[in-house]
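Appendix B. Worked example

We walk through a single record from start to finish. Start with the input: the chain for Oxalate:formate antiporter, Niallia endozanthoxylica, length 256.
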Amino acid sequence: MKRNDIRDVIYIHLNEKDQYVLSYGIEFREFLLSLHESINHLLLLKHRFDDGDFNMHTMLDYVPKKRVMKLVEEDVYGYGDFCWIDFEEMEGLDEIPGQVLAELLYLGHVKEPLRPPFYSYLGNSFAYLAHDDGWFNKTYYRDVNLFYNLLSQLIPMKLEAIKPEKNLLGLKKKKTYPSVDEHLLLSIKKFMSEGLVLSIKDVMQNRFRIELPVWVIGDFSNMDDMYEEYEKNSKRPCDAKLIFDKKTREWKMRSN
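Next comes the structure step. The output line below is what the pipeline stores for this chain.
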């Protein structure tokens, strides 16, 4: 799988009970651009970022909020493993007991929590666990609504990168696609719980609308297997379509 293949196919398996999303095609850069207002400082559990600060208490690197956006420019895919947990206050980081630190080290190493990875010491909203970022991501959300918020902005962001809107002269329009109404995304929550692919690669468009197909393909943790299943399923009619009406500039969802 080439690096560039990651961009145009999104796989989502939502586990609402355990508050995590397994995904393919959602990159850290996109995560950060969509949710940066919900993120304070980052405690780095597995990384290769060389502009972090060192915390003596945990003996881990961290990125203060003012430098978090620097990571947008980083090739975190090239890190291999990239795992972090956000935190609100430096004081909380310095008060982490040994047991919690042990849990955090295990979390970064195995990408599985020993218990729900939300800590009062940290006040964290996320635990972000990636291998070859954008290829295999397991992200825990304290508030799962933030995932829908991410997705509502991610889809137009990807569409803009792959299918930029152009005017009559063939020049790229400045106006980007609007975010997708989160209620539309909630309407396919059942599909997400079963494991779905939303494909920008297979987008259909004419003068009036853009259609993004959605296939339900099942639960995968091996993304080679997932991609193989997606390629098989992409030959059959899709289970739903996310449609952008070019005239009204509104999104709608249609189940087949």
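Two observations about the output. Confidence is low (pLDDT under 50) at residues 1-5. DSSP finds eight helices and 13 strands in the chain.
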